[in-house]
Structure formats: structure tokens, C-alpha cells
Amino acid sequence: KEEEEKYLLKCFGFFLKKDGTFMLRTRIISGHLTATQAVKLGQISKKYANNYMDITTRSQIELRYLKFEDLYSVIVELDRVGITTFQTGIDNFRAIVTSAFDGLSVESKIDCQTIIPKMTKIFLKNEDYMGTLPRKFNTGILGSTVNDCNIYGHDCSFVLAQKSETIGFNLYLGGKVGVQASCANLFVTQEEVPTVFKAVIDLFKTYGFRDNRNKNRLHFLLEAVGIEEFTKAIRTYSALDLPTAGKVLVKDEFQLSNDGVYALKENKTAVHFSIPSGILSGDDLVQAGQTALEVDGFVKLSVEQSFYIIADSAKIDSIKTSKLYRKYENFQNIYFNNLVACAGTATCSFAVIPNKPDAIMMAQYLHNTVPMDEGKIRLYWSACPKGCGIHSIADIGFEGCIAKDEEGNRCDGVRIFIGGKATRKAEEARLLIKSTTIQKAKEIVKELVILYKEQKQNNESFEAFDDRVLRELTIEEIQQKIGL
Fold first, then answer.
1. Rounded to whole angstroms, how far apart are CA atoms 198 and 288?
2. DSSP string spanning 49-77?
3. Is the pLDDT of residue 7 over 90?
4. What whole-number distance in Å separates Cα of residue 343 and Cα of residue 358?
5. Taking the model in full, what pTM does it have?
6. What is the CA radius of gyration of the chain?
């Protein structure tokens, strides 16, 4: 009975933690929060969740430290502002990820805000899909030439592409943590996306493995039957005569300016709030919502655990002079702008290291010792091999492990990875250091960053720098260059 109760609560997004409190995973469509929704989420965090929340790598909000007796009140209050938590846990569908600037940026070719609700409607609160999948299912859709949402890292990904004169999507399948999705060699029009999506999930539901939870993801079904056979089945299930893949149009890399201001279409502007490791207080989200309300704007969460307030360009000064912007202004730099870190030992039973504090400490150390005004470095931290901090696609990735200090004592450590690709193409990072202490990791990464600073070309990102310089070197040669 106890296990059944836990399962039921997880279907509503509530996860019982080791301290007896609950974590709650919300479902925020496309990471888009109205001003009213942002204020209400912040108020709920203050009232029920110790004034604490995490921004996740799927552009969502997680609340923590909730008491059992408050759970019903929380979901009722969220429902009143149009936020659900339903089917966010167990073998269900996670939120569909897209660009933070979907339909808003000059690089956007297809507005996915018209497509994502149709995809979500297929499974949300539909009893045919309530916990009936072999495993969880992640989806992404990108209608922009800029990949700012790790589009190749999902079970099912629709990637902006062109076939003849038609702009649509190439279908990629089988991504998961540590594995990028593979091209299914199918081109899908905007109108066909919901039908193809339903075909994919129905095939997964019907034929996906259910005997080993470690191998029940779509990736393993594709390994067993082959992607070509799965593609044939998609055509059959969808009853669509889908052509082969077109030319991928994702070719640009998103890069923030030093002031965090990003120009959009129709005289709109996004102002970035760099949130260290995604740790946000309810007070801060209330302020974000109130600021958005004052400028007739809204809040967009990012997959790199931060957020933007988007409003008319004439309102930029009002946003940048707000108390909230001043609070986070010092984190608006190359080391914090693209920082990701999963939960860590404070709230995750799988974690090996604290992680979020480690990530913040590393970023601050690098900012102090190797200040840089131009460039981009994605520093992604996972507290254990499960890889929830998506370290395997980072420019410089960290995986928590147990290391030994100079006296031979066991201590917190990391494995260091380098050269992951997540913008123009998908490619896993290479293992640079098998195991080292957190303290030694700071010095190793400092030398890497110095190498990047000295040899990068103008505003070149670390990903582009790795392609141009480091990919030509063996791991041993890179180690020699940084004095190891």
C-alpha cells in the first residue's frame, strides 16, 4: 500500500525525500510564465516550500521541502493560475522543451507555441498515457536556427530543417543523458508534428522494453530493432507518406552580450537573469513576476537554469534598474551565464558531491582569477554518473566521484570532461581527467580557461575553439598543454 501511495503521488509530481518532505515538479509549457504565474509560484514557495526552488534543465520549476498536509493546497493554488503538476513523474512525459526565444527571435523560422499545446494535449490527463509508458519520455522541438535548448538530447526531437521549399523539421530519436539522438531520416511539416509525435509514443508504449528499468528508454528499443525499421513503423502508424530528411537549418550559436540584453523581433528585448546553479528563492520569483507585470512582459525559463524577462525594448531600463536585476548583476559573466548543476547531496540520494555549491565556487574562482569580457563557456555539473547536469555535452563537464587527497584520504572529487557539442551538432565530451579532488579541479580548469583565453579568436565560444584547436589534439597532448 505504501508503494502504491508513493506511485500515486509521483503521478502528480510529488516525490518523497529522505527527510520526510516532498519535492514537487511542475509542468510549465515551453518554460513560459505569465507575470501572474511567476508571482503565484513565488508565493507558494514562500508559504509552503521554505522559500526555495530550483530551475531545471527542462525550463521548469521544482519546489522542495513541502509537507504532506500542504500538498493538496499547493496543487489547487497552482491550478488556479493554469499550472499543472500532473504526469510529471514516473513513466510519463516530461515537459516539451523548446527555445527560450521560440517565435520571438529573428532566428525563429517556425513558432512552436502553436504546435506544443497540440502535442501536450495528446497525453496530458489522457488515461491512455497516464503512467503507461515503459519509462519516462523527453521531447524537444526547435523552430530556430539557434540551438539554445539541447535539442539533440531528447527521446524525440524535432529539429528545424528544409526540404525543397518547405520549412519543417527533421526527426531525431533515441537521445538520453549521455547519448545524443540519431537522425531518423524523416522530414515532418509543421502540421504533421502532432501526428508523428503520437506515432512515436504509441510505438514506444506498445513495443518498448519493460523488463529492466535501466534499459527501458526508447534508445534501447531503437538499438534492438534498428532505426530504419522504426522509421517504417512511424510511416505506418501515422498513415503519412513522410519524405526523407531535409537540410538541417540549425547553424548559429546563441551567445549573450556582457549586459545580458538580447534583441528580439517586433521591438521586443530579453533581459537575462543569471541564476547560480538554478537556485532561486520564492521572494525572487515574486519580484520577477512583479517586474514583468510593471513592464507588460513575461518570464521565460531557460534550460541553463536561469530566466529572462521579455518586454518591449523601451522597458529595458525599468528592468535593469530593478532591485532583482541588481541582485544578480554580478553573476552576469562568462562563467555563470551558461552554468548548470543538478541537485547534489543536499536533496538527492544518488548524489556523490554537494555539486551546486561546488559549481558556484568554481565559477566564482574562475571569474576572479581569469576574468574575461568575451566568449562563452558551458560549465555543466552532475553530482553522480546519472548525469542529470548533462555534463556529457558540456564545454567543460564535471561528474561527481570520490577522490583521494594528498594524504590518501577519501574526499569529494570530480571527473572532468571536455569538448561536448550541443549547438550546431551533437557530440559527447571526451574524458580529460579520470578523478581529481575539487581543489585540484579548480587549478586544472583554470589552466584550460587560460589556454582558451590566449588562443580564442575575438568572441569565439569554447565549443568553436575546441573544434578549431583542441579536437586536433589527443587527450594526452591537451593534458601536456595545461601542465599535467
1. 36
2. STT-EEE-TTS-EEEEEE-GGGHHHHHHH
3. no
4. 11
5. 0.96
6. 22
